[in-house]
């Protein structure tokens, strides 16, 4: 079995069909699919693609799509995607995983500059992480971010997946909307042409909510474009469901769910600051749960990284991701550890410490 390193985005895109099939084979999360990886790379020209593909004749047996940048003479290699999102190597069987991790190690040893590889969001107790650590020789495997995962399988009911407090909060919100003479409408969208007219509202709500919570993500052009194109790509692949909660004729809250295997991952959900009084976000999140409870295929709702109160309602298991960090040499690993532990030097003061005179 052979391997190749692909550094051109358009060449990687030629293997989207193979990536889809391999993703199905390993039950890869939606964020490890080309519909997420492609937009992320496209809108970050400062990140250079670095893909390792293993193949047997004309058949692709494994692929890992990474991205690289150079800082201070060190090549930084990461997964192609957001740090907090789940990921997976794509391969066809245990032997293919062994070949792929070995190929990644061999490809990295061919990199001329010192390098650091960091992969976040790998599955808990990841076999791939352990094999990569062995293949790259100087590596560390550690626990990563936590993601609450709700069981909505056949043995669950509305009374088990939504706590009594959540059900009461939804009832109170609906009553408040009605008592104010307003209307609530919940609708699910799958097709890109249905979603397109609402994307502007969704992106505005996301940006305003992030700003209200003092979050930095989702405000620059690259982030916004990645968000838009990712959602549309998953819609085209029939892997996305989007919930819109309208109060009167205005989008008050939304939830974007990306589906893979038996899991729905809540890629993004937010409420407009204008509708916090009506708990529109709580109403929307509850409908996400109830809709997937009725779904014959989806058995789990993954709320995404970060343990928050609203994510912990019902039969939830907190999954801990795995992080792999590998270095081109033990010396570089020691130098990076020393750099992290060194105290930061404060800039030398050039003026007097006396307070200015009062006016």
From TrEMBL:
Domain BioF2-like acetyltransferase intervals: 164-311
A Pfam family annotated for this UniProt entry: Acetyltransf_6
Region feature Disordered, mapped onto this chain: 138-158
SUPFAM superfamilies: Acyl-CoA N-acyltransferases (Nat)
Name of this protein: BioF2-like acetyltransferase domain-containing protein
InterPro entries: Acyl_CoA_acyltransferase, BioF2-like_GNAT_dom
């Amino acid at each position: 079995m052979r391997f190749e390193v692909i550094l051109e985005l358009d060449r990687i895109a030629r293997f989207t069909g193979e990536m889809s099939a391999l993703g199905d084979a390993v039950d890869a999360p939606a964020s490890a699919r080309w519909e997420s990886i492609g937009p992320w790379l496209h809108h970050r020209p400062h990140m250079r693609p670095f893909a390792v593909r293993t193949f047997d004749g004309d058949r692709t047996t494994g692929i890992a799509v990474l991205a690289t940048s150079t800082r201070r003479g060190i090549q930084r290699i990461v997964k192609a995607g957001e740090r907090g999102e789940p990921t997976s190597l794509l391969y066809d069987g245990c032997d293919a995983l062994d070949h792929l991790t070995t190929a990644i190690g061999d490809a990295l040893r061919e990199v001329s500059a010192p390098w650091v590889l960091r992969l976040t969001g790998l599955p808990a107790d990841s076999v791939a992480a352990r094999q990569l650590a062995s293949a790259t020789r100087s590596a560390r495997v550690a626990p990563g971010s936590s993601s609450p995962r709700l069981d909505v399988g056949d043995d669950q009911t509305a009374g088990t997946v939504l706590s009594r407090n959540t059900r009461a909060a939804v009832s109170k919100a609906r009553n408040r909307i009605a008592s104010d003479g307003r209307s609530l409408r919940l609708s699910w969208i799958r097709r890109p042409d249905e979603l397109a007219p609402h994307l502007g509202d969704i992106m505005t709500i996301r940006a305003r909510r992030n700003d209200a919570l003092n979050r930095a993500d989702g405000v620059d052009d690259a982030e916004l474009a990645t968000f838009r194109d990712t959602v549309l790509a998953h819609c085209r692949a029939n892997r996305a469901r989007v919930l819109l909660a309208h109060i009167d004729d205005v989008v008050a809250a939304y939830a974007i769910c990306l589906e893979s295997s038996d899991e729905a991952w809540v890629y993004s959900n937010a409420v407009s600051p204008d509708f916090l009084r009506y708990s529109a976000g709580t109403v929307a999140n509850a409908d996400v749960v109830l809709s997937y409870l009725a779904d014959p295929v989806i058995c789990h709702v993954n709320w995404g990284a970060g343990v928050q109160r609203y994510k912990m309602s019902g039969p939830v298991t907190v999954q801990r991701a795995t992080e792999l960090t590998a270095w081109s040499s033990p010396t570089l690993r020691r130098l990076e550890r020393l750099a992290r532990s060194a105290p930061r030097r404060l800039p030398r003061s050039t003026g007097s410490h006396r307070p200015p005179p009062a006016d």
